[in-house]
Amino acid sequence: MSLPPGFLDELRTRVSLSQVVGRKVMWDARKSNQGKGDMWAPCPFHQEKSASFHVDDRKGYYYCFGCHAKGDAISFVRETENVDFMEAVRILAGEAGMQMPARDPQAQKKADRRSQLAEVMEQAVQFFRLNLAAGAGFAAREYLDGRGMSAATRERFEIGFAPEGWQNLYDHLRGKNVPEDLIMACGLARASSKGGKPYDVFRNRIMFPIRDARGRCIAFGGRAMDPADNAKYLNSPETELFDKGRSLYNHGPAREAAGKGQALIVAEGYMDVIALSVAGFGATVAPLGTAVTEDQLRLLWRIHPEPIIALDGDAAGLRAARRVIDLALPLLEAGNSLRFAILPEGQDPDDLIKAKGPEAMQAVLDAARPMVSLLWERETEGQVFDSPERRAALDKRLRTVVKTIRDPSIQRHYTEEIKRMRQDLFFPPRARGGWSGGKGGMGGKGGWRPRGAPEPVRASTKHSLLAMADPSAEDRLREAVILASLLLHPELVNRFVGALEMLEFADPDHARIRDVLLRTEAETTEALEAEIRRSIGGEALENLFATRHVQIAPPVRSPGNTTVAAMCIAEAMAKLKARRGAEREIAEAMEDLLGVADEGLTWRLQQAAEARNRAERSEAEDTTEYETGSNGALVSREERETFDKLLQGIKYTKGKG
Asked: Which fold has domain 116-239?
């Protein structure tokens, strides 16, 4: 439907964005200025404690500095109410007292027909429910009682029964003056191949109404009462109302429950959804007899940013999980992902809840695994990697899969996580535990470190061969300086929030400390330290301040000078960014060596090498001998020789090509 010129502008003028958003959030009184229309709140689109969601009421736009959601009143209603554009406009127009323009005749005619079909479907719902309560539904009631489904639950989910016989529903609807073409268009009856009356699609089945997000019945699912029936479960055929790949069972109630903070669970079937909902897990949906589709994934993410796929722990359940992974990887975006809850083998949610209660189901959901974990398991399970060739084959498979991720940031994080798991598989870490001696704690000498791990790299040896054997050692030292400086100068955290969120930490403990800094509202060093100890333990904190490099950093050696601390943090962040950018450029160029090398590749390697050296030019002096690069940057003689050999190899490759 097209809207007349100026209608949307008038709507946005009449509607107060802060009032629309205010129905879904709690404003932060300290940061908000209602008089200027400058409002702040925790973001309604992702889980957070701080107020990073900003509404500019005068301009009519919102923006989240955490998940980067942005838009106006219409987009906010679309996302939070899970409705399409025109429905969002209709909702806001009603609130603003504006009359929606009339539809064109063809669109109106189509809408009228869909309304007629929906009315016929409601009549079918009532017919099936009456039959479940009547004598014809005795066996069906006994079956449901045996499954533990109470009368109240049957009423809540509008469970019904399609009696035996070929034309029961058809005759009932025709007796209500429903035209035959509407019955057929609803998918409730099929034409007879023998020239007789149309016959009912559903016969001798327990019936589950399938409703869309707006609550309209669009289809049915039927469970056969006869064990010999060819199809245990049968869904309505696709119709003008029903698109199986774009629909979810229990969509509307699940969306409402998820909006109140519940985790969104994706179960396998109708009975699983009902069992979970009755047990208190109201935000539960199910695909309709098929594997999850791309459209259903997008529907799920509109309801919740991280749905939990709950699957049986048998081989079929794991295969289903792995199919979903392949489907989801290209669609991933920041803030949209999946987790997988694998149930005990041989049990579905209904079995588990009956045997051990909702607490057992909650424990399974709490243990839900990220996609990268199942992806790694799929590629490594049952295999032996006792040769370089087998390891190379694994690397090739993983690279191929990860490259299907379109979002470059997520692809990078997957690569790093897989690299970590690969390291654990091929080079298992030594047992943790043990003190390095000396006084530990913040700013102390010595401290806790992994037993058997090498001493932290000191500033005076950062350019030695030992340090260069671990390229990430310098990164970890810079990360430690950044975090230690922020801990001792909490007032700087807000200034560096954006850079902290984007920073990729080489040390997992450093990443966890960063996460605490971003989410906590503590405003003193003591409060931050207490929050870190409470959240992740004291070891990470003690390790952070144990290295000599951190202890001699100006913000740590002389705390209290905010200006010096800010400069030190900014410099360390810049060096990290420059070095990692250079490494990525070199890695990409090295990949190109598998193809045809050219002058452009040679130039890229030269530039990457010189960029890296520029980033390290201000490091502490040591005994390394230096030369001058083509752009005036200092280049260690060892690095110059390494790159000269590399470039010679490239030129040789060109000559052979």
From this structure: DNA primase DNAg catalytic core, N-terminal domain (3.90.980)
